[in-house]
Amino acid sequence: MDFFDIVDSRSSVREFLTKSVEREKLQKILEAANRSPSAGNLQAYEIFVETDPLKRELLSKAALDQEFIASAPVALVFCSHPERNAGRYGGRGVQMYALQDATIACTFAMLAATDLGLGSVWVGAFDDEAVRKVIGVSEAINPISILPIGYAKEIPVKRSRRELNELVHWN
Q: What is the pLDDT along the chain (171 residues), one digit of tens a residue?
């Protein structure tokens, strides 16, 4: 698929078929995330792959009962790992670059899923500590986003977007 077709066809999918995501497709998604740019190429993020139905159910509860997380066959949890940036970038690396690294990796994964005919939705509303407990990490790792992935039950209607002249400012 052409890049601009991928961007245009991507939508937030919250209803998934029970069909499993093929291991090869999941591998390609993870490889795309791994190729995302990061500050100093330090990749200050971690990706947790949750295919276990019980863990996805717990993630769903941690995410304010967003049940579609449990219904997706896969949920990727993107976390920042600030200490990977601390030595080179200090406080800015810890506070900002690690967060940016995780969000860029999640975006690459989301676009790769679209290219492979899969649906996904970015989830940012959750209890950090509850997510940490589900994925089994300490407070040194910060959950940033949950990306449920699967085959879409239906493609949502496209939502309107702001006009470019409302959000782009030429100086």
A: 799 999 999 999 999 999 999 999 999 999 999 999 999 999 999 999 999 999 999 999 999 999 999 999 999 999 999 999 999 999 999 999 999 999 999 999 999 999 999 999 999 999 999 999 999 999 999 999 999 999 999 888 888 999 999 999 999
Q: Which of 53, 52, 51, 33 is nearest to 43 (CA)?
A: 33
Which of the 8 DSSP states describes residue 105? H
Q: Is 165 inside any structural domain?
A: no
CATH at 129: 3.40.109.10
pTM of the model: 0.96
3-state secondary structure of 70: helix
Strand spans (E) along the chain: 45-50, 74-80, 119-120, 142-150
Domain contains 122: yes
The structural domain count of the chain equals: 1
Element (H, E) at 83: helix 83-92
39 close to 101: Cβ distance less than 8 angstroms: yes
